[in-house]
Specification:
Elements (H helix, E strand, L loop, with lengths): L5 E6 L2 E6 L14 H5 L6 H8 L8 E3 L5 E3 H12 L3 H12 L9 H5 L23 H22 L13 E3 L2 E3 L4 H9 L3 H15 L8 E4 L5 E5 L2 E5 L2 H7 L6 E3 L1 H5 L2 E2 L10 E3 L4 E5 L2 E4 L3 H6 L7 E3 L9 E2 L13 E5 L5 E5 L2 E5 L2 H8 L4 E4 L1 H5 L2 E2 L10 E4 L6 E4 L2 E4 L3 H6 L8 E3 L1 H5 L18 E4 L1
Helix pairs in contact: 2-3, 3-6, 4-8, 6-7
Amino acid sequence: MKPSSLLITAFVGFIITFSPSQALAFNPNFLISDTEFTDRFALDVGQIYSILQRGMLGSFVTPDIDGRVRHAADIIWRAGQRNGISPKVILTMLQKEQSLIEDPEPATSQFDWAMGYGVCDACTHETPEIQRWRGFAKQINSATLQLAEGYLGDLLTVGQTVAGFSPGKPSRVDDEVVVPANNATAALYTYTPHLHGNQNFVNIFQRYFAERHPTGTLLQDAVTGGVYVIKSGKKHAITSRAALLSRYHPDRVIQTDPSTLASYQDGLAISFPNYSILRTHTTTYLLVDDVLRPFDSEETKRSLGFVPDEELEVKEEELAGYEIGEPITQETSYPNGVVFQLTNTDAYYYVEDGVRHPVVTEDILRERYAGKTIHRVEPVRVESFKPGGPAKLPDGVLVRTHEDPTVFIITEGTRRAVVDEKTFTEMGWDWEDILVVHEDTLLVHPLSVPFNLSDDESQTSTASHE
């Protein structure tokens, strides 16, 4: 057993310690990010097939919902594509519900009720009312359809799931109060209204899919010099310095060997600065992150303050792969974002596309909106916009508070405690890059699972920096 507080080393004026932290405990309020939950492209069929080789599903074929006989990997992939749920989530649930990923000799009932769909706490596998959902392919299709169109659909239209779960709303689960941090967490509690089951989901997901480099990590090929950003397990080439500077801090780039980069799937290349105006021979777009928003007319573009000198002429093929977002009309408010400061309280808000987001600390203001002009306005001006969630730090930022030396990496909008010094140094991070922030800055980011490169799954300490 490790001592409760152990001095390990000291350099550049800082003390590095390892100490037990509550940050390592399961956080029932945050199970998985919304992005990871709905990323239907997270795995291809070949990657799913490889994972299934751990158990009997590696050779399992059965009729799909259309009656055609397919391999389990193909059924899983098709359901994810059809219903908009990540295949990583499907694989995790297959293991959580029936141990199907790893069981070498599963029973027929494990295939029949692969996702546990329709099997209520008071039901048995023979309950007549649930027989229409029996079968491997039916289970996967019904479960993913329920998660996407049922639970996530209800959250978008009525603000809560059929069981009453909603982000920010306290709910009682197994005699404990849970406050879901996002839609994905609310959906998973609706599917499995028990703490232990959802803790199993988190543990399995991390065991199968924990990434070496969290979302927001900047990597540079040590041979070619090419720079990439890791997002949701894929590498995205950043092909221009202007694109890099508009989105990231270039001094946080980590050099790595080509083989590490080769282990990642290629994602959409990042070639243009954020909020670029891109004009093809038919349409003019505003680029917002990875989404192209078309202007509905030249008049709209002018009325919102965009001028022709700011436009970049591009070919249609240069925009292949981008998602096409909602059109920008004359009713669209601040499609490229603006920072307001209230005259009565000095509080900050970021407004984009008609939605106001409180900026709770100057830490977030500096890191997220550096370079933006701050406009002082009366409160009534900001109150006219729809309320949204709080602004957060960019992904890939290392932080700690003045009060607690535990180091966190911000990724997918959450905070993950860095488990030990070995993890920190092997990642190539620099202690001088750690931002010391106000506690309120930290609390804006839901606590997620610890970040750990160690093979020791029983590790119970976190890297801290004093």
